[in-house]
């Protein structure tokens, strides 16, 4: 039998496996660590620790200050961020989603707001987020209950049924939700329907609404098992939705059906006559007939899936009769020119990413060099983007408005700028700046007008989408 010369690494200390082999050539219990932690394994783990003054100092510093403060690379943190951008779509005003998961809605409405302010001449104009959010929560409730009816014959522990009960409702979402909601219900100015405490802090109310929806879902399944027809179940669902609607009105107020509004300039002076609109009339007026579904496409950079394919995710929609989230998966270097073309044309974009990775909140910089976790922990965090997606370590967690890019002498992007929805006191006065290297690693989705695609890319959109289940790693909605 050949001598084994492999080794195990414990916190930087090498323990030759040859030392773990008994004199008669048999393996000791230490090699069974993958199965259970025996006293011998625990002893090896404990003995692998070093107790130098540097170790004690580092342990004390981490305990007192936290991980990010200790891992912050001061070479980058002390540098003044470069805020110059060679291409930028200007706007005014920063929104604040506060303690809610509505970044997708704020971002979608901010993109639409950029178009509306140019048309209306109202730089301080904002849409009402709560108006659209009311209908989002109403539609999602119906989507869940109808999903329960559709899966009534499946076992309670079927994965699809389990997923439905685990996710009856959320305040997160994607661009598709914005497109479907405003197309169906329209939009209103912020002053027409203002925020409430609950809309700015959604978790408490959401927990009660989700519990009620789960109860309703169980009742529908019980009625189905007793022989109720689909028609009877759907009639029962409508009665249940009356309770949902009432709960929503208590939390968010009842949506306006019509309103009178006149545009104002930056000083607050009226610059046009007051007119009465329905929300849909107002949307059609400010959007100039743009079809947010037909005219735009979501592009994804997901290296865990085959590129140049169109994918669709089941149940990833806000409206039962609306559109599932559908996207074209492209190499990152194919996506960048489309973003640049859009910015050159003064068109802002819905953009989403894994914002929590390497974000320096103090200076608003997203840079892969912000934090040196490798040196802090004495190990290498070495997964690539594909591996991070497959292992659920990274995914799109937050939506923002992509609005600027800085190009170098070779017309290559060096950094990008987004309008965030965390208020004016966060980041760079409400904006975040990301290096192009960070963009490569943590950018996932961007929505562009189809007119910027080349002919080959447009042809890809004609293929039949590959449908993925709701629990796919990339399902995670932005919040």
Entry keywords:
Cathepsin B, Chain A, disordered N terminus, 12-stranded mixed β-sheet, 479 residues, 3 domains, 39% helix, alpha+beta
Q: Sum up the overall morphology in one term.
A: globular
Provide the CATH top-level class of the largest domain: Alpha Beta
Query: In total, how many beta strands?
Result: 16
| Average pLDDT | 89
CATH architecture annotation name of the largest domain: Alpha-Beta Complex
Number of helices: 17
CATH topology of the largest domain: Cathepsin B, Chain A
Radius of gyration: 26 Å
Count up the domains.
3
Q: Structural class of the helix and strand makeup?
A: alpha+beta
Q: CATH homologous superfamily of the largest domain, by name?
A: Cysteine proteinases
The end-to-end span amounts to 58 Å
Could you explain the architecture of this structure?
It contains 17 helices and 16 strands. It has 479 residues and is of the alpha+beta class. It has three domains: 1-48, no CATH class; 125-287, Alpha-Beta Complex (Cathepsin B, Chain A), CATH 3.90.70.10; 291-475, Cathepsin B, Chain A. Strands 3, 6, 7, 8, 9, 10, 11, 12, 13, 14, 15 and 16 form a twelve-stranded mixed beta sheet that branches. The protein has a two-stranded antiparallel ribbon with strand order 1-2. Helix 5 packs across helix 8 (175-185), helix 6 (129-150) packs parallel to helix 10 (203-225) and helix 10 packs antiparallel against helix 11 (230-252). Mean pLDDT is 89; it is low at 1-30.
